[in-house]
Amino acid sequence: MPTTEPAHRGVKICGLTEAAGFDACIEHGADWVGFVFFERSPRNISPVQAQQLSARHKGGPKRVGLFVRPDDETLERVLNGVSLDVLQLYATAERAQAIKARFGLPLWLSQPVSSRAELPTTCTVERILIEPKPPAQATRPGGNAQKLDWGLLSGWQPNFAWMLAGGLNPANVAHAIAQTGAPAVDVSSGVESAPGIKSPQAIATFITQARGAAG
């Protein structure tokens, strides 16, 4: 499905919970900011908190809400509290289409992979996020600071919009892009000073490294 791509390498900063991190995303030109609506995450945020952060700056990055296998009631409750531009989902493709039909917002679908054979060949949403599969003992499907084997994506050139996630940080994002050619990248724990607390300096460095990367 078509989607509007940034003219430069796209950068999403996910898991924002406090003003300093949000303001750094604005200052340094992130393309998307992500709010996590999943209780098991240390970055879980209420719709009221997300709206308060979002209201700090009119316009700017698109607001993305991350949900894990949400029911309609959860989505409705969140959307009644905060204005979102994109819904990022851990869900089946069938469930994603049902959500699209009801709520009408652009959808991103997370696709954890552990082998090249698991890379998607088609896309029925606006964007696919490619990330590593969580460890067996994980309580969350993502946000575990795991790094994907980037070699799995070497030469992979899908005809749909996608984003690389998982284990990225300011020190490795340029290398990840060089190996994968990712048109956009997503970071959360890699720019934190503590779980759920973003480092403005790390955000600035990450965006600079991602935008300057060859790939």
From TrEMBL:
<protein>
    <recommendedName>
        <fullName>N-(5'-phosphoribosyl)anthranilate isomerase</fullName>
        <ecNumber>5.3.1.24</ecNumber>
    </recommendedName>
</protein>
<comment type="pathway">
    <text>Amino-acid biosynthesis; L-tryptophan biosynthesis; L-tryptophan from chorismate: step 3/5.</text>
</comment>
<dbReference type="GO" id="GO:0004640">
    <property type="term" value="F:phosphoribosylanthranilate isomerase activity"/>
</dbReference>
<keyword id="KW-0057">Aromatic amino acid biosynthesis</keyword>
<dbReference type="InterPro" id="IPR013785">
    <property type="entry name" value="Aldolase_TIM"/>
</dbReference>
<keyword id="KW-0028">Amino-acid biosynthesis</keyword>
<dbReference type="GO" id="GO:0000162">
    <property type="term" value="P:L-tryptophan biosynthetic process"/>
</dbReference>
<keyword id="KW-0822">Tryptophan biosynthesis</keyword>
<dbReference type="InterPro" id="IPR011060">
    <property type="entry name" value="RibuloseP-bd_barrel"/>
</dbReference>
<keyword id="KW-0413">Isomerase</keyword>
<dbReference type="InterPro" id="IPR044643">
    <property type="entry name" value="TrpF_fam"/>
</dbReference>
<dbReference type="Pfam" id="PF00697">
    <property type="entry name" value="PRAI"/>
</dbReference>
<comment type="similarity">
    <text>Belongs to the TrpF family.</text>
</comment>
<dbReference type="InterPro" id="IPR001240">
    <property type="entry name" value="PRAI_dom"/>
</dbReference>
<feature type="domain" description="N-(5'phosphoribosyl) anthranilate isomerase (PRAI)">
    <location>
        <begin position="11"/>
        <end position="208"/>
    </location>
</feature>
